[in-house]
Each structure stands twice: as C-alpha cells, then as structure tokens.
Please model this.
Amino acid sequence: MHGCRNERLLVKAIKIRGFAAEIGQMAAKRGNDSLRKFRLDNILENAYIAVMNQQNYVQINQRYSGLAETTCCLSCGGAINHAQPHKGEFCVDLGSGRGTDAVRMAEDVGELGQVVGIDIADGMIEKARATAQKLSVDNVRFEKAELESLPIENGVADLIISNCVLNHARSKAKVWEEIFRILKPGGRFVISDIYSLEPVPEEFKNDPEAVAECWAGADTREVYVQTIQKAGFASFDVLEESKPYAKGKVQVCSWTIAGVKPGKKKCCG
Ligand SMILES: C[S@@+](CC[C@H](N)C(=O)[O-])C[C@H]1O[C@@H](n2cnc3c(N)ncnc32)[C@H](O)[C@@H]1O
Model:
C-alpha cells in the first residue's frame, strides 16, 4: 500500500523536476526575463525536493527511531573532539541522534550557554530528551526539524556541529545556506560526514531506503566543496580524512571539516 503511494510520489516528483528543467532551458534559450523573474523552475525544483524529502524522511524516521535504544555507533568522525565549545556559547548539533554530543556541549558551555539538538527522528528526539533529563542537564533542548529549515533565528549560533548527517539531506545546498544563515559572523562549524568517490547512480540516490542507510545521499568531494563555497564559506579546513572504504554500493571517505562565517568585526586597539 505504502509502496504504491511512494512509487506514485516518486513518479510525480521526477515529472516535476523534468518539467522544471524544461522551463529553465526554455527561459534560458529565449532570454525570457519575465519567465526567469517568476523563478518557476526554482519553485518546481523546491516542489520536487519537498516530495522527495517526504519520502526520505519517512525512511530516516523509521530507521533511526529504531536505532535510538541501541548502542551501535552512528558517527563517522570526531567533530565533537575538535569543537571546543566555550562558556556562554550558543551551539547547535545538526542530526543530534541520541543527544550525547549535544549534552556534552551543554556541559561545556555552562549555565550561561545553550545548546539545541535538531533531529527528524521521533525516537531519537525522545531518547535525547530522556538522557538530558536523567543527567539533569537543562541548558539543552531537542527539536524535531529538517536540516533544510532550521527553527533557529538568523545569526545567533557561535558553533554548529554535526556527525554523519548531512549526507542524508536531499538539498545539501539548502542545508549549507541554513548553516550560514544561523551562524553569527565569526561563528564556526565543525562537521563530520562522508563523500563518495564517484557520483552515486540516480537509482540509489532516489532510493529513500539507501539514503537512510547513510551512503546513497553522498555527494562527491568536488560537489561537496562547491556547495560549501556557494553558501558563503570561501574556505574551510580538513581536520580528518579517511582512506576510501566500501559503504552500501559505493566507495566513500569520511572527513571532518571546520570553517568560520566571515564578517566578524576586528577589535580596535
Ligand atoms: C547517522 S545518525 C548520527 C547521529 C549522531 N550525530 C551521532 O553521531 O551519533 C544520523 C542522524 O541524523 C538524523 N537526520 C538524518 N537526516 C536528517 C534531516 N534531514 N534532518 C534532521 N535530522 C536528520 C537521523 O534521524 C539520525 O538521528
């Protein structure tokens, strides 16, 4: 039953994207500015992303809610070990899972600081809230949300961490725009994730189960770098990078990267 519905949604989504691409090409060929102004292709691309996300997130919610009470390792790098949250800072963990890293940051930033963990899986949010309560850590909160639309104001975060999460997002460009948006000027990110050695074939990229398994959503290193730069981070550091290894049906590498949002005013002196 669900399978049929998902297939119908998938067909619709692919048609929408095809339609969007045609309109974009038509507009470009004719130099049709009025058509461009409407940004119809963008609207349709967003509709495509929304339909695809709906499917992906059902799978992600299912998979990770099921893993919430297990102890299996879900990380792919040491972002938290490089993060160095300072007293009083406002920190965000994207895809906070069972909440371990967010709680650790909450302890580091102290009672004047605050931490928000974002996750899409109900089971993970429940588990993380229970852990914080058990440890009496009350300067951390966990919110169910998608990485592409963070429930956080502009320019408030000092530090964003994430571990093995961004590869799941259908629109990495939107996620990186969100990271840039919520960071303060001078705010920093430390992110562990994977990239693929070769572009992941469309059949896997469009398979919500394979995406939820933490490999089919991966971008290549080149695309990853371009996405970060387009969002406004001119450069970033690579803190850790693994050798290639097999994951699902592809070869991937894990890496931990760190960068700073430009624009912090220099102190006079
Ligand atoms: C591989 S686990 C990593 C969890 C945690 N960061 C850790 O290192 O243990 C990925 C987590 O990201 C969440 N997630 C995946 N895609 C997401 C999205 N688009 N928006 C919000 N959370 C997402 C999943 O629900 C899951 O809890």
Observations:
- Residues 60, 64, 74-75, 95, 97, 118-121, 124, 146-147, 163-165, 168-169, 214 surround S-adenosylmethionine (CB under 6 Å).
